[in-house]
Amino acid sequence: MSLAKRIIPCLDVDKGRVVKGVKFLDIRDAGDPVEIAKRYDQQGADEITFLDITASSEGRDTTVHTVEKMASEVFIPLTVGGGIRQCDDIRLMLNAGADKVAINTAAIFNPDFVKEAASRFGSQCIVVAIDAKQVSVAGETPRWEIFTHGGRKPTGIDAVEWGIKMAEYGAGEILLTSMDQDGMKNGFDLGVTRAISDAVNIPIIASGGVGNLQHLVDGVVEGKADAVLAASIFHFGEYTVPEAKAFMRAQGVDVRL
Amino acid sequence: MSSASQPQTIAVIDYGMGNLHSAAKAIEHVSDGANVIITGDPELIAQADRVVFPGVGAIRDCMAEILGRGVDKVVHQAIDAGKPVLAICVGMQALLNSSEENNGVDGLGILSGDVRYFGENHRDSAGEKLKVPHMGWNRVSQVAHPLWAGIEDNSYFYFVHSYYVDHAVPEQIAGSSHYGFDFTVALSAGNLFAVQFHPEKSADAGLQLLRNFCQWQPAP
Fold it and tell me: Which domain holds residue B76?
């Protein structure tokens, strides 16, 4: 009897619609985010992550409205990420009903923002999102670096050191996405997941690369992730959340059923 | 208490800390038409039929706001008036004698117990590292109480905290969980019920607890 490993469906939302899906198909409309979040809640998802990929400022109002609606109907934790650059953005999302915010690029350009956000709102609602890519070659000691702009821009920052620093700065949790694995459906990058999970004392959410249910188990058992995040396997009905949980439990992973 | 024809008022105490909207929205969802208000106004809270005392963030800041705004008096009044009062997370911790957090902070001393840190090197019995904060879903073992009605024993609830209740009085313990060791996650004393977890984020089990709270008629 202890803390259950969490399964977190992720909604990529653009102008009020869930869009991301299977990369090899054209960008596919997966539906209304509130309806989808309700479905996952009913299925027993442990949390919902909502990533706002809208660039425009008008889109921002739509996002706030969507978060408000979701928070009135879905009573599990809700994390909102995308475009969180200052404390006002955090205040706006928390007031709309988010429980946590994910800070990504803004943390890289201004690490003190994480400190400020954690002291103002509490570490429990500050998630730092890390996009990492392996930069070592075969035969070298594995090394991963932080990338921005959807994996196009290297920053020169070591991913494990960055995780340690963000935990010290007050992050309550790390959302770790492997840019090498994202969309590949070959499973998480277990090396970087485990390296950061061993190095810090805060929970790690593994993200990027889930193609089947064994990948979720591997993320927890080998990657030492505290939670696993997936999008497309759930959105397009390949697997349901209860199927994922039943599989994980059968493999000895403690999940909330 | 309001008459049957009039919707009851449930006040969620606002003292400037954290996100109260989740709690208010969840209570609205289950309260069958109650008037749910988020307020720091002592008069409005005094007029309410039920009071929710939430809290997130650091205890020092919470206690400073509680004392600075006179929320301690409001909470005492509600308890003395026999109204059902539900404290959540740091709201619960603030009711205890003291907390280790922020180098030691005095609480309101309404419930017996102290608040302690899980520690940097928290491990389970097998020696595996346990992350702090204790964040996620854990099972709650119940001690019979009307607020658990319709909730299966050992159901999962959502937690997020780094400090836990220690030295509670056995007769006030209403629930416990396990994270490296057993610890108290629910306390009850007369018309007061306090929980470490977040019922407003605990799916069906949490909503049922809030529904029970909205209907609870504690013995005078």
Answer: 9-215
Average pLDDT over residues B144-161: 97
Q: Which of B89, B101, B134, B214 is catalytic?
A: B89
Could you give the number of structural domains in chain B?
1
A110-114: list long-range contacts, CB under 8 Å, 24+ apart. Answer: A111/A165, A111/A166, A111/A169, A112/A169, A113/A85, A113/A86, A114/A166, A114/A169, A114/A170, A114/A171
Catalytic residue (choose from A41, A46, A52, A131):
A131
Within a domain: B178: yes
Q: What is the CATH number of domain A6-250?
A: 3.20.20.70
Tokens of B174: 């209403």
Residue B3 lies in a domain: no
Q: Is A202 on the interface with B (CB under 8 A)?
A: yes
Contact A152, A181 (CB under 8 A): no
pLDDT average per 10 residues of sequence, chain A (257 residues)? 91 85 56 94 96 76 91 95 92 89 95 94 92 94 91 92 97 94 89 97 95 97 97 89 98 95
**In 3-state terms, what secondary structure has residue A172?**
coil
Whether residue A3 lies within 8 A of chain B, CB to CB, comes out as yes
Residue B1 is assigned to a structural domain of this protein: no
In this predicted model, what pLDDT tens digit does every residue of B66-123 receive, in sequence order? 999 999 999 999 999 999 999 999 999 999 999 998 888 899 999 999 999 998 889 9
Q: Model pTM greater than 0.90?
A: yes
Any idea what the CATH number is for the domain that residue B34 is in? 3.40.50.880
- Classify the complex by whether its ipTM is higher than 0.85, answering yes or no: yes
Q: Is B65 a domain residue?
A: yes
Q: What is the largest distance, in Å, between two alpha-carbon atoms of chain A? A: 52
**Is there a catalytic annotation at residue A131?**
yes
Question: Which residues between 141 and 200 in chain B have a beta carbon less than 8 angstroms from any beta carbon of chain A?
Answer: 154, 156, 158-162, 177-180, 198, 200
